[in-house]
Amino acid sequence: MGNSLKWIGAAVAFCSVSSLANADDIKIGYVNKMGDHPWFVAEVVGAQKAAEARGASLIAQDVQFNADLAITAVDTMIGDGVKGIAIVVPDRGIGPVVAARAKEAGVKLVAVDDDIYHEDGTKVPFVGLDSYNIGLAVGEELSNLYKASGWDPETVKIASIEDRKADTCMLRNKGAEDAFLKANPEFERDDIARVAYDNTMVNSIDVMTTTLTANPQITNWIFYSCNDDGVLGAARAMENSGYAAENGIGVGIDGSRACDAFGNGRASAFKGTMWFNPENQGKVAVNLLMDAIENGKDLPENTYSSPELVNMGNFDAYKGRLCK
Known about the structure:
Belongs to the bacterial solute-binding protein 2 family. One of its GO terms (biological process) is L-arabinose transmembrane transport. By secondary structure, the protein is of the alpha/beta class. It folds into two domains: 2-129 and 277-306, 3-Layer(aba) Sandwich (Rossmann fold); 131-275 and 311-322, Rossmann fold, CATH 3.40.50.2300. It has helices spanning 8-11, 38-53, 67-79, 95-105, 131-149, 167-183, 201-214, 228-240, 258-262, 278-295, 315-322, and strands at 5-7, 27-32, 57-62, 84-87, 108-112, 126-129, 156-162, 193-196, 220-224, 248-254, 270-275, 302-305, 308-311. Strand 7 (156-162), helix 6 (167-183) and strand 8 (193-196) form a beta-alpha-beta unit. Helix 2 (38-53) runs parallel beside helix 10 and helix 7 (201-214) packs across helix 8 (228-240). The protein is elongated and about 65 Å long. The two termini are 35 Å apart. Residues 1-21 have low confidence and may be disordered.
Protein backbone atom coordinates (compact mmCIF):
# COMPACT_ATOMS: atom_id res chain seq x y z
CA MET A 1 0.00 0.00 0.00
CA GLY A 2 2.89 2.35 0.78
CA ASN A 3 2.21 6.02 0.10
CA SER A 4 -1.11 5.17 -1.53
CA LEU A 5 -2.66 4.53 1.91
CA LYS A 6 -4.30 7.25 4.00
CA TRP A 7 -6.35 6.70 7.11
CA ILE A 8 -9.85 8.07 7.35
CA GLY A 9 -9.17 9.70 10.69
CA ALA A 10 -6.70 12.03 8.99
CA ALA A 11 -8.81 12.53 5.90
CA VAL A 12 -11.83 13.67 7.93
CA ALA A 13 -9.82 16.68 9.03
CA PHE A 14 -10.20 18.07 5.52
CA CYS A 15 -13.76 19.07 6.46
CA SER A 16 -12.40 22.21 8.07
CA VAL A 17 -10.57 23.38 4.96
CA SER A 18 -12.01 26.58 3.56
CA SER A 19 -13.63 26.44 0.14
CA LEU A 20 -12.01 28.29 -2.71
CA ALA A 21 -13.84 30.93 -4.69
CA ASN A 22 -15.15 28.55 -7.33
CA ALA A 23 -16.46 25.90 -4.92
CA ASP A 24 -20.03 27.12 -5.35
CA ASP A 25 -19.85 25.96 -8.96
CA ILE A 26 -18.76 22.42 -8.08
CA LYS A 27 -21.21 19.55 -8.15
CA ILE A 28 -20.38 16.13 -6.73
CA GLY A 29 -22.33 12.98 -7.57
CA TYR A 30 -22.87 10.16 -5.07
CA VAL A 31 -24.23 6.84 -6.35
CA ASN A 32 -25.05 4.21 -3.74
CA LYS A 33 -26.35 0.69 -4.18
CA MET A 34 -28.88 0.46 -1.32
CA GLY A 35 -30.09 3.88 -0.22
CA ASP A 36 -32.61 2.64 2.34
CA HIS A 37 -30.03 0.71 4.37
CA PRO A 38 -28.83 2.52 7.53
CA TRP A 39 -25.18 2.21 6.50
CA PHE A 40 -25.68 3.92 3.15
CA VAL A 41 -28.10 6.46 4.57
CA ALA A 42 -25.35 7.54 6.97
CA GLU A 43 -22.73 7.57 4.20
CA VAL A 44 -24.82 9.95 2.12
CA VAL A 45 -25.42 12.16 5.17
CA GLY A 46 -21.66 12.36 5.66
CA ALA A 47 -21.13 13.16 1.99
CA GLN A 48 -23.76 15.90 2.16
CA LYS A 49 -22.13 17.44 5.23
CA ALA A 50 -18.73 17.42 3.54
CA ALA A 51 -20.09 19.00 0.36
CA GLU A 52 -21.84 21.75 2.34
CA ALA A 53 -18.70 22.41 4.37
CA ARG A 54 -16.73 22.84 1.16
CA GLY A 55 -19.36 25.02 -0.52
CA ALA A 56 -20.20 22.41 -3.15
CA SER A 57 -23.51 20.75 -4.02
CA LEU A 58 -24.20 17.02 -3.84
CA ILE A 59 -26.41 14.96 -6.15
CA ALA A 60 -27.22 11.56 -4.61
CA GLN A 61 -28.81 8.59 -6.38
CA ASP A 62 -29.97 5.30 -4.87
CA VAL A 63 -29.87 2.48 -7.45
CA GLN A 64 -31.16 -0.42 -5.30
CA PHE A 65 -28.65 -3.01 -6.57
CA ASN A 66 -29.54 -2.24 -10.20
CA ALA A 67 -26.31 -2.20 -12.25
CA ASP A 68 -27.97 -0.70 -15.34
CA LEU A 69 -29.43 2.11 -13.24
CA ALA A 70 -26.01 2.77 -11.71
CA ILE A 71 -24.47 3.29 -15.15
CA THR A 72 -27.40 5.49 -16.15
CA ALA A 73 -26.95 7.52 -12.96
CA VAL A 74 -23.28 8.08 -13.77
CA ASP A 75 -24.17 9.22 -17.29
CA THR A 76 -26.87 11.54 -15.96
CA MET A 77 -24.54 13.07 -13.38
CA ILE A 78 -21.85 13.64 -16.01
CA GLY A 79 -24.46 15.29 -18.22
CA ASP A 80 -25.47 17.45 -15.26
CA GLY A 81 -21.95 18.79 -14.97
CA VAL A 82 -20.54 17.05 -11.91
CA LYS A 83 -16.80 17.41 -11.39
CA GLY A 84 -16.46 14.29 -9.29
CA ILE A 85 -18.38 11.09 -8.54
CA ALA A 86 -18.27 8.75 -5.56
CA ILE A 87 -19.89 5.40 -6.27
CA VAL A 88 -20.88 2.33 -4.29
CA VAL A 89 -21.36 -0.11 -7.14
CA PRO A 90 -24.17 -2.70 -7.01
CA ASP A 91 -22.00 -5.03 -9.09
CA ARG A 92 -18.22 -4.76 -9.35
CA GLY A 93 -18.48 -5.99 -12.92
CA ILE A 94 -19.57 -2.53 -14.06
CA GLY A 95 -16.36 -0.99 -12.71
CA PRO A 96 -14.52 -0.73 -16.06
CA VAL A 97 -17.58 0.86 -17.69
CA VAL A 98 -18.01 3.43 -14.94
CA ALA A 99 -14.29 4.19 -14.87
CA ALA A 100 -14.18 4.66 -18.65
CA ARG A 101 -17.20 7.01 -18.65
CA ALA A 102 -15.70 9.15 -15.90
CA LYS A 103 -12.25 9.24 -17.52
CA GLU A 104 -13.67 10.19 -20.92
CA ALA A 105 -15.62 13.05 -19.32
CA GLY A 106 -12.68 14.26 -17.23
CA VAL A 107 -14.63 13.56 -14.03
CA LYS A 108 -12.78 12.52 -10.86
CA LEU A 109 -13.93 9.12 -9.58
CA VAL A 110 -13.75 7.42 -6.19
CA ALA A 111 -15.12 3.96 -5.37
CA VAL A 112 -16.64 3.59 -1.90
CA ASP A 113 -17.14 0.32 0.02
CA ASP A 114 -16.52 -1.95 -2.99
CA ASP A 115 -13.33 -1.57 -5.03
CA ILE A 116 -13.47 -1.39 -8.82
CA TYR A 117 -10.90 -1.35 -11.60
CA HIS A 118 -10.21 0.18 -14.98
CA GLU A 119 -10.21 -2.03 -18.05
CA ASP A 120 -6.40 -2.24 -17.87
CA GLY A 121 -6.54 -3.57 -14.31
CA THR A 122 -5.49 -0.42 -12.49
CA LYS A 123 -7.48 0.34 -9.38
CA VAL A 124 -9.95 3.21 -9.12
CA PRO A 125 -9.15 5.25 -5.95
CA PHE A 126 -10.92 3.50 -3.08
CA VAL A 127 -12.45 4.60 0.22
CA GLY A 128 -13.62 1.85 2.54
CA LEU A 129 -12.64 -1.11 4.61
CA ASP A 130 -9.70 -3.49 4.38
CA SER A 131 -12.02 -6.45 4.07
CA TYR A 132 -9.70 -9.35 4.84
CA ASN A 133 -8.19 -7.74 7.95
CA ILE A 134 -11.64 -6.83 9.25
CA GLY A 135 -12.55 -10.48 8.87
CA LEU A 136 -9.47 -11.42 10.86
CA ALA A 137 -10.69 -9.21 13.71
CA VAL A 138 -14.08 -10.94 13.59
CA GLY A 139 -12.46 -14.38 13.65
CA GLU A 140 -10.28 -13.46 16.62
CA GLU A 141 -13.29 -12.23 18.60
CA LEU A 142 -15.28 -15.34 17.69
CA SER A 143 -12.38 -17.43 18.94
CA ASN A 144 -12.22 -15.53 22.23
CA LEU A 145 -15.95 -16.01 22.78
CA TYR A 146 -15.81 -19.68 21.81
CA LYS A 147 -12.96 -20.41 24.20
CA ALA A 148 -14.84 -18.66 27.00
CA SER A 149 -18.00 -20.68 26.27
CA GLY A 150 -16.67 -24.03 27.41
CA TRP A 151 -18.49 -25.80 24.57
CA ASP A 152 -17.56 -29.33 23.61
CA PRO A 153 -16.29 -29.09 19.99
CA GLU A 154 -18.39 -32.13 19.10
CA THR A 155 -21.55 -30.03 19.71
CA VAL A 156 -20.42 -27.09 17.55
CA LYS A 157 -20.80 -26.21 13.87
CA ILE A 158 -19.57 -23.13 12.03
CA ALA A 159 -21.75 -21.32 9.49
CA SER A 160 -20.26 -18.96 6.92
CA ILE A 161 -23.12 -16.76 5.65
CA GLU A 162 -21.96 -15.66 2.23
CA ASP A 163 -22.93 -13.17 -0.44
CA ARG A 164 -20.96 -14.94 -3.16
CA LYS A 165 -21.42 -12.27 -5.78
CA ALA A 166 -19.59 -9.68 -3.66
CA ASP A 167 -15.81 -10.10 -3.43
CA THR A 168 -15.73 -7.77 -0.44
CA CYS A 169 -18.10 -10.06 1.42
CA MET A 170 -16.12 -13.16 0.62
CA LEU A 171 -12.85 -11.56 1.73
CA ARG A 172 -14.38 -10.65 5.09
CA ASN A 173 -15.66 -14.19 5.54
CA LYS A 174 -12.31 -15.65 4.55
CA GLY A 175 -10.53 -13.49 7.10
CA ALA A 176 -12.94 -14.57 9.85
CA GLU A 177 -12.55 -18.21 8.86
CA ASP A 178 -8.76 -18.11 8.67
CA ALA A 179 -8.37 -16.43 12.05
CA PHE A 180 -10.82 -18.74 13.81
CA LEU A 181 -9.42 -21.96 12.35
CA LYS A 182 -5.83 -20.93 13.09
CA ALA A 183 -6.74 -20.43 16.75
CA ASN A 184 -8.92 -23.55 16.93
CA PRO A 185 -7.35 -26.35 14.86
CA GLU A 186 -9.88 -28.87 16.15
CA PHE A 187 -12.25 -27.52 13.48
CA GLU A 188 -11.84 -28.46 9.82
CA ARG A 189 -12.45 -26.07 6.93
CA ASP A 190 -14.41 -28.74 5.05
CA ASP A 191 -16.90 -29.03 7.92
CA ILE A 192 -18.05 -25.40 7.69
CA ALA A 193 -21.63 -24.90 6.50
CA ARG A 194 -21.54 -22.58 3.46
CA VAL A 195 -24.78 -20.60 3.57
CA ALA A 196 -25.52 -18.44 0.51
CA TYR A 197 -27.61 -15.32 1.05
CA ASP A 198 -28.51 -12.11 -0.77
CA ASN A 199 -27.06 -9.57 1.69
CA THR A 200 -30.36 -8.88 3.49
CA MET A 201 -31.41 -9.80 7.00
CA VAL A 202 -34.72 -11.31 5.87
CA ASN A 203 -32.94 -13.71 3.56
CA SER A 204 -30.35 -14.54 6.23
CA ILE A 205 -33.17 -15.59 8.55
CA ASP A 206 -34.58 -17.85 5.84
CA VAL A 207 -31.34 -19.54 4.80
CA MET A 208 -30.06 -19.98 8.35
CA THR A 209 -33.38 -21.50 9.39
CA THR A 210 -32.95 -24.04 6.60
CA THR A 211 -29.39 -24.73 7.78
CA LEU A 212 -30.51 -25.29 11.37
CA THR A 213 -33.24 -27.67 10.21
CA ALA A 214 -30.70 -29.64 8.18
CA ASN A 215 -28.41 -30.06 11.20
CA PRO A 216 -30.66 -31.05 14.13
CA GLN A 217 -27.76 -32.81 15.88
CA ILE A 218 -25.88 -29.52 16.41
CA THR A 219 -26.38 -27.81 19.76
CA ASN A 220 -24.12 -24.78 19.38
CA TRP A 221 -23.41 -22.55 16.40
CA ILE A 222 -20.64 -20.11 15.50
CA PHE A 223 -21.36 -17.84 12.55
CA TYR A 224 -20.10 -14.81 10.67
CA SER A 225 -20.97 -12.81 7.59
CA CYS A 226 -19.89 -9.67 5.75
CA ASN A 227 -22.32 -7.38 7.56
CA ASP A 228 -24.64 -7.09 10.54
CA ASP A 229 -27.65 -8.15 8.47
CA GLY A 230 -26.21 -11.58 7.82
CA VAL A 231 -25.28 -12.16 11.46
CA LEU A 232 -28.38 -10.70 13.10
CA GLY A 233 -30.53 -12.66 10.64
CA ALA A 234 -28.78 -15.86 11.71
CA ALA A 235 -29.25 -14.95 15.38
CA ARG A 236 -32.96 -14.34 14.78
CA ALA A 237 -33.23 -17.67 12.99
CA MET A 238 -31.73 -19.40 16.01
CA GLU A 239 -34.15 -17.63 18.35
CA ASN A 240 -37.12 -18.46 16.12
CA SER A 241 -36.01 -22.10 16.03
CA GLY A 242 -35.95 -22.39 19.81
CA TYR A 243 -32.23 -22.06 20.51
CA ALA A 244 -31.17 -20.15 23.63
CA ALA A 245 -28.97 -17.06 23.34
CA GLU A 246 -26.04 -18.94 24.88
CA ASN A 247 -26.14 -21.54 22.09
CA GLY A 248 -24.94 -19.15 19.41
CA ILE A 249 -21.94 -16.89 18.84
CA GLY A 250 -22.06 -14.45 15.96
CA VAL A 251 -20.05 -11.27 15.33
CA GLY A 252 -21.13 -8.81 12.66
CA ILE A 253 -19.48 -6.06 10.65
CA ASP A 254 -20.58 -2.42 10.21
CA GLY A 255 -22.66 -1.70 13.35
CA SER A 256 -25.81 -0.94 11.38
CA ARG A 257 -27.92 -3.40 13.40
CA ALA A 258 -26.35 -2.81 16.82
CA CYS A 259 -29.44 -0.96 18.05
CA ASP A 260 -31.69 -3.82 16.95
CA ALA A 261 -29.42 -6.35 18.64
CA PHE A 262 -28.60 -4.57 21.89
CA GLY A 263 -31.16 -1.80 22.29
CA ASN A 264 -33.71 -3.90 24.15
CA GLY A 265 -31.11 -5.28 26.57
CA ARG A 266 -32.05 -8.85 25.73
CA ALA A 267 -29.21 -11.27 25.07
CA SER A 268 -29.07 -13.07 21.73
CA ALA A 269 -26.59 -15.03 19.64
CA PHE A 270 -25.51 -11.70 18.10
CA LYS A 271 -22.57 -11.09 20.44
CA GLY A 272 -20.91 -8.09 18.84
CA THR A 273 -20.13 -6.11 15.74
CA MET A 274 -17.07 -4.46 14.25
CA TRP A 275 -18.34 -0.90 13.85
CA PHE A 276 -17.20 1.74 11.42
CA ASN A 277 -18.66 5.22 11.25
CA PRO A 278 -20.14 5.25 7.74
CA GLU A 279 -20.58 9.03 7.82
CA ASN A 280 -16.80 9.30 7.79
CA GLN A 281 -16.56 7.32 4.57
CA GLY A 282 -19.01 9.63 2.83
CA LYS A 283 -17.16 12.68 4.15
CA VAL A 284 -13.78 11.35 3.13
CA ALA A 285 -14.90 10.44 -0.39
CA VAL A 286 -16.23 13.95 -1.01
CA ASN A 287 -13.22 15.66 0.57
CA LEU A 288 -10.79 13.62 -1.50
CA LEU A 289 -12.72 14.54 -4.65
CA MET A 290 -12.82 18.20 -3.66
CA ASP A 291 -9.08 18.30 -3.00
CA ALA A 292 -8.45 16.73 -6.39
CA ILE A 293 -10.82 19.13 -8.14
CA GLU A 294 -9.87 22.33 -6.34
CA ASN A 295 -6.22 21.76 -5.49
CA GLY A 296 -5.06 19.20 -8.02
CA LYS A 297 -4.14 16.65 -5.34
CA ASP A 298 -3.69 13.07 -6.46
CA LEU A 299 -6.40 10.70 -5.30
CA PRO A 300 -4.79 8.02 -3.07
CA GLU A 301 -5.24 4.45 -4.21
CA ASN A 302 -6.60 3.28 -0.84
CA THR A 303 -8.09 5.10 2.13
CA TYR A 304 -8.98 2.64 4.90
CA SER A 305 -10.74 2.88 8.25
CA SER A 306 -10.36 0.73 11.37
CA PRO A 307 -13.16 -1.04 13.30
CA GLU A 308 -14.25 -0.80 16.93
CA LEU A 309 -15.88 -3.74 18.70
CA VAL A 310 -19.37 -2.93 19.97
CA ASN A 311 -21.13 -5.44 22.23
CA MET A 312 -23.75 -5.56 24.94
CA GLY A 313 -21.19 -4.53 27.54
CA ASN A 314 -20.13 -1.25 25.92
CA PHE A 315 -23.23 -0.49 23.86
CA ASP A 316 -24.28 2.48 26.01
CA ALA A 317 -21.08 4.30 25.02
CA TYR A 318 -22.01 3.97 21.32
CA LYS A 319 -25.76 4.29 21.59
CA GLY A 320 -25.89 8.00 20.77
CA ARG A 321 -24.01 7.50 17.53
CA LEU A 322 -25.63 4.26 16.43
CA CYS A 323 -29.27 4.87 17.33
CA LYS A 324 -30.54 7.89 15.42
